């Protein structure tokens, strides 16, 4: 091999070696520049999985806001962040209602049009921010919360520590996270609307129940103080006439018996409208109720009270419990075809439990309130609503041909 050939190969090797060193230098300088500008690399895939899981566990707007304005910014080294949600064509900061932007704000429209997270240092966007009336100079990244074409909110992020910027990968990650967040936000809003509707329905139901009980009290008073007293006077007069009647005169026995039955029927109606024993204690009222039910039932009805406390509740609570037991017993008498019906009251350290048990035919077709309401039977739904009104919980257990159990549980703090 000639000297020229050797020199050629040596030069070629040196050239490749220099090129390799230049590539390494370029990679090193680029890595240093990227680290200086964007900070240390972030495992975006792992973070997306982690925060996606945490997002799905957010059950209200406040917990969602904490996640997006505290936890995620802390991961990126961001000291300030805000979450603005849409309300009446405005974007309102969930933690600071003084920060308000119109949905048609120029910056909002610009960011929404892109559909992705945008750094605010881009020339046109920076100009729009600086021209706005609200001080948003602290923002560095704008992230729209979009669902299709609907803007649900705007996520604003401030500067990162050490003056570093969000990398393109960071922006893509924030965009992906925002799409998960807006899905969770819609679920939260739907749940809140359902809870609000349920609360309004419960309030309306409470008003109806209160109005009905007030009407019961009024009717009971009117019947007792008016018609019942008049009938009692008629009954007394009939007895006096019977006592003074001539031996061969007509008999008043039938009229006396009829008037006595009418008086007793009216008293029963008054007691049903407003149980008088509730003014003493609930146990006495329930014992009287069970005694009355037992007298009218082909199957024995009895009550067991296993508590050492005197059951004194606020009037509305006592009345709600009484009506629930009354409705449960009426259902058992009318539909169960049972050989035995029992009411039990059991005291636990933290609650009282009332149960109505029968060994009848059970309930075919399920025990959900909706199924009863659909068939125009509102008793079970009403019992559950009454229980919810007083902070209790009502459960129904039933097996076909094995009977039904109605369970009402009430926090112990109601008792004296």
Can you give a write-up of this model?
The protein is of the alpha+beta class. Among the domains are: 44-194, GAF domain (Beta-Lactamase); 276-414, Histidine kinase-like ATPase, C-terminal domain (Heat Shock Protein 90), CATH 3.30.565.10. Helices cover 56% and strands 16% of the residues. The chain contains eleven helices and eleven strands. The chain has helices at 3-38, 44-56, 61-76, 106-114, 123-131, 168-244, 253-273, 282-296, 315-336, 369-374, 379-389, and strands at 81-87, 90-93, 100-102, 118-119, 141-147, 150-157, 301-306, 341-347, 351-358, 393-399, 403-411. The model is unreliable at 372-376 (pLDDT under 50).
The number of helical elements comes to 11
Find the CATH superfamily of the domain at 44-194: GAF domain
> What is the rounded distance between the termini?
112 Å
Unreliable runs, pLDDT <50, ≥5 residues?
Answer: 372-376
Work out the radius of gyration: 39 Å
* CATH hierarchy: architecture of the domain at 44-194: 2-Layer Sandwich
Question: Main sheet?
Answer: 6 strands, antiparallel
Number of strands: 11
């Amino acid at each position: 091999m000639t000297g020229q050939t050797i020199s050629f190969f040596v030069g070629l090797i040196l050239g490749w070696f220099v090129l390799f060193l230049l590539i390494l230098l370029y990679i090193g300088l680029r890595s240093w520049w990227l680290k200086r500008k964007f900070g240390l690399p972030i495992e975006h895939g792992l973070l997306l999985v982690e925060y996606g899981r945490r997002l799905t566990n957010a059950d209200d707007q406040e917990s969602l806001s904490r996640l997006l304005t505290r936890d995620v910014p802390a991961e990126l080294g961001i000291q300030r962040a805000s979450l603005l949600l849409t309300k009446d064509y405005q974007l309102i900061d969930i933690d600071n209602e003084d920060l308000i932007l119109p949905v048609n704000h120029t910056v909002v429209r610009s960011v929404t049009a892109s559909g992705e997270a945008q750094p605010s240092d881009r020339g046109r966007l920076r100009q729009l921010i600086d021209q706005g009336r609200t001080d948003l100079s602290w923002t560095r990244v704008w992230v729209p919360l979009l669902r299709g074409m609907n803007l649900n909110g705007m996520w604003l992020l401030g500067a990162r520590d050490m003056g570093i910027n969000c990398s393109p990968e960071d922006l893509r990650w924030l965009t992906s996270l925002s799409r998960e967040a807006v899905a969770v936000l819609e679920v939260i809003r739907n749940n809140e609307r359902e809870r609000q509707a349920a609360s309004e329905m419960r309030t309306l139901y409470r008003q109806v129940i209160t109005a009905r009980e007030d009407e019961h009290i009024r009717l009971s008073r009117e019947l007792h103080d008016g018609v019942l007293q008049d009938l009692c006077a008629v009954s007394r007069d009939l007895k006096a006439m019977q006592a003074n009647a001539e031996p061969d005169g007509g008999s008043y026995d039938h009229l006396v018996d009829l008037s006595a039955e009418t008086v007793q029927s009216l008293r029963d109606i008054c007691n049903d409208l407003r149980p008088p024993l509730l003014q003493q204690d609930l146990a006495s009222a329930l014992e009287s109720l069970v005694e009355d039910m037992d007298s009218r039932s082909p199957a024995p009805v009895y009550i067991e009270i296993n508590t050492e406390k005197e059951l004194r509740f606020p009037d509305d609570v006592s009345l709600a419990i009484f009506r629930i037991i009354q409705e449960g017993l009426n259902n058992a008498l009318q539909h169960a075809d049972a050989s035995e019906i029992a009411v039990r009251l059991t005291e636990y350290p933290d609650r009282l439990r009332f149960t109505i048990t029968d060994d009848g035919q059970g309930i075919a077709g399920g025990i959900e309130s909706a199924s009863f309401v659909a068939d125009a039977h509102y008793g079970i739904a009403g019992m559950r609503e009454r229980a919810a009104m007083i902070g209790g919980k009502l459960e129904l257990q039933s097996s076909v041909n094995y009977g039904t159990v109605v369970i009402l549980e009430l926090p112990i703090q109601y008792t004296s």
